[in-house]
């Protein structure tokens, strides 16, 4: 009786211990086990130990598609695929952990090529996974870092190693697809720069450090300047001139984009409302709106306010969007855009053809124009492949009843080539660089004079 009691207790204890260190969904060891093993490795391993954080990409999209049950099934499918790959690797084999949701961890022995194992795991997902009757193309963002064994690491160092792996993983996520990034000093410096930028960006609006430049767009057939793209600029006392490509993502991360985006919208509409009066012909403005901006704020309200305040007719406002959205929220983005189109605003798909904007996107959101990315323009008119690509994009736009704007035109030869291919509108340094409001108005006047002169002569 006494012996039976002990055995039962032992079994219960084992079960409790199993539950404490294992993930119920996948049967993998869990986050607590990761910490326990990492401490142990740090104390006993002779050399370096590699750790990795692996995040399943587009997980929210999977959940939107089939609910949390499909989310769970997809995690199980990925884990099964990775576990099979790990079993096929020679000893010492890596250990995989599931932290929570779509986040996995891994500890593996040092390797002359530390990207080899993560690379093999990532490649094992090239074939689609089957989960709950769905065929899913899943991929991972992997961040790795190393720690030195035999250091008697304390809790702080474990946390620091995880922070580094997390930083690398987030960088991998930004690269998109099956990114793998190893932590290094450069990454840390870039992170610190971003953090510093975030702190000063908060006061940029209040200190009037932001301003807008306008880059003209010309209709190829008529030679008329029908509009301009608004491009935000930031001049900071110490950082100097900061590119929007650098600070817009920081503003998005921080939610600051809501305030900055609203300011851009009002300012662009105000300036544009004056151009038509000034030049005697309608000139529109095209405002870049990152999709994250739509998720964080009520874009419809922002646009309505800017139009009311400036008196700009909706037909002169265009919004440029890209696909680099939290794709999971496509439905909400699409419904906001539909309401905007209903108001008479047009939507153009920026950077078309780069992978940030794809054909499937065209089916899901209302779009009036395609902006052909500048990477397709560089080789015109000599590069046959680029000529064919641009021709195909223009053909596609025509068939769908959409307009085309080509960006990054730097030479007359490129402009002539685009005219021959039937592109509607061009934008680029050849026509005019982005310029502040006053020079832009002067540009409009001089172009108008030139156009009238050309017509008379
Ligand atoms: P984008 O919307 O694709 O803008 C085109 C970029 O190409 C601009 O860079 C422009 O200055 C540059 N560009 C124009 N013509 C030429 C040319 O002939 N050759 C070359 N090589 N480049 C040319 P910029 O102003 O640095 O903007 C970079 C990106 O930042 C923009 O790409 C856009 O995604 C984002 N951005 C700019 N302003 C805003 C804004 O107000 N709001 C949001 N959300 N994003 C913005
Ligand atoms: Mg743009
Ligand atoms: Mg673009």
List the helices and strands and how they pair.
Elements: H1 2-21, H2 31-44, E1 48-56, H3 59-87, E2 95-100, E3 103-109, H4 116-123, E4 129-131, E5 134-136, E6 140-148, H5 155-175, E7 180-182, H6 185-201, E8 210-219, E9 225-236, E10 240-242, H7 244-254, H8 257-279, E11 284-288, H9 291-296, H10 299-310, E12 317-321, H11 330-342, E13 346-352, H12 359-364, E14 369-372, H13 384-399, E15 403-407, H14 412-421, E16 425-427, H15 437-456
Parallel strand pairs: 6-7, 9-11, 11-12, 12-13, 13-14, 14-15, 15-16
Antiparallel strand pairs: 1-3, 1-6, 2-3, 4-5, 8-9, 8-16, 9-10
Helix pairs in contact: 6-7, 8-10, 8-15
Which sheet architecture does the biggest sheet show?
Answer: 8 strands, mixed, barrel
Q: What percent of residues are in strands?
A: 15-25%
CATH T-level topology of the largest domain: TIM Barrel
**Whole-number count of domains:** 2
Task: Work out the helix count.
Answer: 15
The outline comes out as elongated
What is the CATH architecture assignment of the largest domain?
Alpha-Beta Barrel
Helicity range of the residues? 40-55%
Query: How far apart are the termini?
Result: 114 Å
Strand order of the largest sheet: 8-9-11-12-13-14-15-16
**Mean pLDDT value:** 90
Q: Give me the count of strands.
A: 16
Q: What structural category do the secondary elements indicate? A: alpha/beta
Instruction: Write out the distinct hetero groups bound to the structure.
Output: ligand C2E, magnesium ion
Q: Assign the CATH class of the largest domain.
A: Alpha Beta
């Amino acid at each position: 009786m006494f012996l039976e009691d002990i055995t039962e207790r032992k079994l219960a204890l084992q079960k409790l211990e199993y539950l404490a260190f294992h993930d119920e969904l996948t049967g993998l060891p869990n986050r607590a086990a990761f910490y326990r093993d990492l401490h142990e490795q740090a104390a006993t391993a002779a050399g370096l130990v590699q750790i990795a954080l692996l995040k399943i990409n587009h997980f929210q999209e999977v959940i939107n598609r089939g609910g949390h049950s499909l989310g769970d099934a997809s995690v199980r499918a990925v884990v099964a695929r990775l576990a099979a790959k790990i079993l096929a690797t020679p000893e010492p084999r890596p250990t995989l952990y599931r932290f929570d949701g779509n986040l996995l961890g891994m500890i593996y022995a040092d390797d002359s090529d530390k990207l080899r194992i993560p690379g093999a795991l990532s490649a094992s997902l090239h074939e689609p996974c089957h989960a709950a009757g769905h065929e899913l193309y899943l991929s991972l963002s992997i961040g790795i870092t190393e720690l030195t064994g035999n250091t008697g690491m304390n809790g702080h160092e474990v946390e620091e190693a995880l922070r580094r792996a997390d930083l690398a993983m987030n960088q991998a996520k930004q690269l998109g697809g099956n990114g793998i990034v190893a932590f290094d000093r450069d990454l840390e410096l870039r992170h610190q720069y971003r953090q510093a930028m975030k702190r000063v960006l908060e006061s940029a609006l209040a200190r009037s450090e932001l301003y807008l430049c306008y880059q003209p767009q010309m209709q190829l057939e008529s030679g008329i300047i029908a509009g301009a793209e608004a491009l935000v600029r930031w001049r900071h006392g110490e950082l100097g001139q900061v590119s929007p490509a650098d600070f817009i993502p920081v503003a998005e991360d921080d939610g600051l984009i809501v305030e900055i985006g609203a300011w851009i919208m009002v300012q662009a509409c105000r300036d544009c409302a004056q151009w038509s009066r000034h030049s005697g012909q309608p000139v529109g403005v095209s405002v870049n709106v990152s999709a994250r901006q739509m998720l964080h704020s009520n874009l419809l309200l922002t646009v309505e306010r800017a139009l009311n305040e400036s008196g700009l007719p909706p037909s002169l406002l265009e919004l440029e969007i890209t696909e680099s959205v939290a794709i999971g929220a496509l439905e909400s983005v699409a419904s906001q855009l539909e309401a905007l189109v209903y108001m008479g605003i047009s939507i153009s798909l920026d950077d078309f053809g780069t992978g940030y904007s794809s054909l499937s996107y065209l089916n899901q959101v209302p779009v009036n124009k395609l902006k052909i990315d500048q990477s397709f323009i560089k080789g015109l008119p000599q590069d046959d492949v680029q000529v064919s690509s641009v021709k195909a994009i223009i053909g596609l736009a025509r068939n769908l009843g959409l307009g085309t704007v080509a960006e990054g035109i730097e030479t007359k030869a490129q402009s002539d080539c685009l005219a021959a291919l039937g592109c509607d509108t061009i934008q680029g340094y050849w026509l005019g660089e982005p310029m502040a409001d006053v020079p832009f108005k002067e540009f409009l006047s001089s172009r108008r004079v030139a156009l009238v002169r050309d017509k008379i002569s």
